[in-house]
Amino acid sequence: MKTMLRALFRPILQPFEKGSEPYAYKPLNRKLLIVMGVLFSGLALAVFFVARGGEGLGFLLPVIVFGVVGTVCFVVGGLGNERAVSKIWGNK
For 90, left (φ over 0), alpha (ψ -120 to 50), or beta? Predict the structure, then answer.
């Protein structure tokens, strides 16, 4: 199942997993990345439900941005290898 999901999300994972430079991986970083995914996704849902009754569609920009960031955090935190997690945090 994991290999199928990794193949599905390859366009997101590939930029973070490529490279040969050394990296410093900490297991806590993966957990924090998943927590950040929960927070950003929750923020996207909160903005959507609070602002949807207003006029116009201007509220969709933050919903899309927070939703994309939350999705990337979930995908890299759940499916990415150690290099991808380290690279998203900028640890070298």
Answer: left
